[in-house]
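Hi all, long-time lurker, first post. I run a small reading group and we've been trying to get comfortable going from sequence to structure in the token notation. Rather than ask abstract questions, I figured I'd post a concrete chain and ask someone more experienced to write out its structure so we can walk through it together at our next meeting. Sequence below, copied exactly:
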Amino acid sequence: MDKTTRAINKKKKFVADGVFNAELHSFFSKSLQDAGYAGIEVRRTPTKTEIRIKATKPQQVIGVEGKKHKELTQFLQKRFGYSDDQIQIWAEPIKFKGLCASAQVEAMNYKLLKDVPVRLAANYIIKSVIQDGAKGCEIIISGKLKQQRAKTMKFKQGYMICTGQPKNDYIDVAVRHVFFKQGIMGVKVKIMLPYEPNPAKKFGVKTPIPDNVIIHPPKQITDDKEIRTAVEQQQPAQPEQQQ
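-- Answer (accepted) --
Happy to help. Here is the structure in token form:
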């Protein structure tokens, strides 16, 4: 009985953590839309709960003289029952905005709410993503696009992987919903990240694509000794003559 109760408690804990993260995500996406909200990262310790907010404009998360930061902390304390020292909120800037799908989908939502044409907004975001070094980008918009009937529009550019383990490693996906008077519009952004063997210098994926073939240039031989050794290596070994 102890094993079953422990398993049930673990399941309940995972479900409670998922509900907590989903509620935080929905709250921050509505309240920090102007700051370029791009996701959260929750770190729990026995004494504190740290919430790191990723945004393109971290100064707007803090606000003038920290007013916005105080409002967010007070709201979370009242909603989830935290004390003053049990919760901390940090704002982290995004270095490569074009390679972050969540930041780009929030920018797409902001443009659609400002009545920017769909094709113009999608092409602008794809152009900025490709300029930052991404291999490919795809934007899918579905809903009532200024019409009575709902339809789906897809915008693509570059190279995109759709299957296998490289899809999990290279593809960054983000989905958001835009609420209009005529209905809900869904926005999905997919970005294929570049290959970077040293991710400390630049943003990218360290593991190479399995089907990637590198062809090295031929070696130039100028010395006579190197030519003789190369010819001897290419020739097959002759059998020893019988006495």
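A couple of things your group might point at:
The domain at 99-190 is CATH 3.30.1140.32 (Ribosomal protein S3 C-terminal domain).
The chain has two domains: 8-91, 99-190.
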